[in-house]
Amino acid sequence: MRAMTYRGPFRVRVENKPEPEILHPNDAVVRVTRAAICGSDIHLYHGLMPDLRPGTTFGHEFIGIVEEVGPEVDNLKAGDKVLVPFNVCCGFCFFCSRGLYGNCHNTNPSATACGGMYGYSHTTGGYDGGQAEYVRVPYANFGPTIIPPDIDDEDALMLTDACPTGYFAAQLGDIKEGDTVLIFGAGPVGIFTARSAWLMGAGRVIVTDHLDYRLDFIGRYGPAETVNFTELKDPIVYFKKITDFIGADVAIDAVGSDASGSAMQALLGERLKMQAGNAVALHWAINSVRKGGTVVIIGAYGPPFNLVPLGSIMNKGLTIRANQTPVKRQLPRLFEHVRAGRIKPSDIITHRFPLEDIAEAYRIFTSKDEECIKPVIIPERAAA
Amino acid sequence: MSYERAKATKRTRGEDAVPVPSHTARYVPKDVRKINGWGADLDPADRPSVPHELPSNVMTARGEVKHRQTPRTKIYISNEMPDLTPVFGETVPPHGLSGMLRDFAFQYGEGTSRHWMTLMLADRIDRVESAFPDGDGRGITTILSVAGAVVGLAILVAASNRKERRDSRLTPPAPRAGSAPARPSPARSQRNGRSGRSIAAG
């Protein structure tokens, strides 16, 4: 089969790889019909995730048709159209039984720091991802969800990660009626976080980024107040000023380890790799939230460590909330929101590429060319 | 913060209060309650991840495992894991010098920077190793990568030797004649509680 493969930092290409097999009675093999490149794939593309081996296929956002199921799979059959949450999860371990599907203990032997994920290095279990023609889906009885007939395919694709993650971030913020929510990052997750903050009853939603085209999109889609931080002398002082010098009630880092805005963080985190990426968004979130407020980390960071102002967390009495999104748990309510027209996830898709052009897709997405917000990958066998 | 206060703080927004031209709220209605879907999940009961953890009677890490995948390649197991997980990915098995470094990294727990930094180093070496077979090694980039890897290895070895010397200085003096024989000292890896684990192809 044809599959995207990582060759080293900033280098990907499409290669021939063996088709996946059923390796466990609860496995399925899915023929991918649509995959997306996630903002967190950019962290991989830049080589920021440890134990990321050349030859790995990325892709944790994909939908497809079930081709084959193992003997223990009884709620899916060949021909079903499914969306596959990015978490590889069993549904019955200590953590899954508590609804923490992003922290499954049965799918990642190499690290307890993270659960299993598709196409996200051996630190998350060593599974190949969905930017390919076929993908192996473990615990198919639990993870994959049949796409309801009234849900559009590309809406379903966005429900595998980006949309539930933004929705989950807003929930982690424990937003109360009238709260001021400050979101760092106007990428796909930031966009859905802004939309979700209104669903939770926010009073103000402010989004900052350095890309005007993304700010313009989120300003309309959220809607949200937007500000380009590159025009600010001191973003923290500015955020304090526009909140009556109190600070936001909830600050959400929807960027992760590939942030912009601090030369020192970029040098240490991205160039020298002395920390798990560039943590400037988190740094700003901690400093611009009000005392006693909540900081949500939904942007992805690698496992080692980062430079953040721990003293401020303690002295301001902040609540830090973070986790990988338990996607499966979000889906029933998100289907309702999509049906009611409160969220239209596929509106953020700006580009579609054939799988063979995936290197170009990564280049455009990473360099933010052509006002790219969300690229979708279409394998040649999608229509087979 | 109350809704009224949020409305009040809005008054400070705008060019008079904060003269920043890019700050815009032109798409946000004055009454945010008119935004499509506003407050649909205001009641926490409507939020699917509230509470964050659901009640459960499962008290073991793995729960009830019925089937286990059989490894066909070398799979590393974190030393913070009880055993091999019931399922795992088998893509891109470890190989060559980078594989040896990964072996080394998995002797250490996830709380140590040695574990993660060695894996990062292995990734860089793997990038070079993987470039040779298909002939896309790129001259200066490849040479610099190899040079960087060698320097990194030298630093690791030097750091390890320095610790060895420090440990040897802390070793108690040999017992005098006539005293009870000293117990054999456990291997250094045992002293440190290290046990690199992996499962090879069965």
Description:
The complex is a heterodimer of chains A (384) and B (202). Helix content of chain A is 26%, strand content 23%. Chain A has 11 helices and 17 strands. Chain A has helices at 39-45, 153-158, 162-172, 188-199, 212-221, 235-241, 263-271, 280-288, 310-316, 327-339, 358-367, and strands at 2-8, 11-16, 28-36, 61-69, 81-84, 87-88, 116-117, 134-137, 145-146, 180-184, 204-209, 225-228, 248-253, 289-297, 319-322, 351-354, 375-378. In chain A, strands 3, 4, 5, 8, 9, 16 and 17 form a 7-stranded mixed sheet that branches. In chain A, strand 11 (204-209), helix 5 and strand 12 form a beta-alpha-beta unit. The longest helix of chain A has 13 residues, at 327-339. Helix content of chain B is 36%, strand content 3%. Chain B has 5 helices and 2 strands, in the order αβααααβ. In chain B, strands 1-2 form a two-stranded antiparallel ribbon. The longest helix of chain B has 31 residues, at 139-169. The termini of chain B are far apart.
Give the structure's gist in a few sentences.
Chain A has 384 residues and is an alpha/beta fold. Chain A has 11 helices and 17 strands.
Number of strands of chain A: 17
Count the E strands of chain B: 2
- Helical proportion of chain A, percent range: 25-40%
The average pLDDT value of chain B, as a whole number, equals 76
- Give me the number of helical elements of chain A: 11
Q: Spans of chain A of 5+ residues with little confidence (pLDDT < 50)?
A: none
Major sheet size, sense and barrel closure of chain B: 2 strands, antiparallel
Oligomer designation: heterodimer
> Could you tell me the mean pLDDT of chain A?
94
Shape of chain B: extended
The number of helical segments of chain B is: 5
The structure class of chain B reads mainly alpha
- Spans where pLDDT lies below 50 across 5 or more residues of chain B: 10-17, 175-193
Roughly how many Å is the radius of gyration of chain B?
Answer: 29 Å
What is the strand content of chain B?
A: under 5%
Give the proportion of residues in helices of chain B: 25-40%
Main-sheet strand order of chain B equals: 1-2
**How far from one another are the termini of chain B?**
60 Å
Task: Report the radius of gyration of chain A as a whole number of Å.
Answer: 20 Å
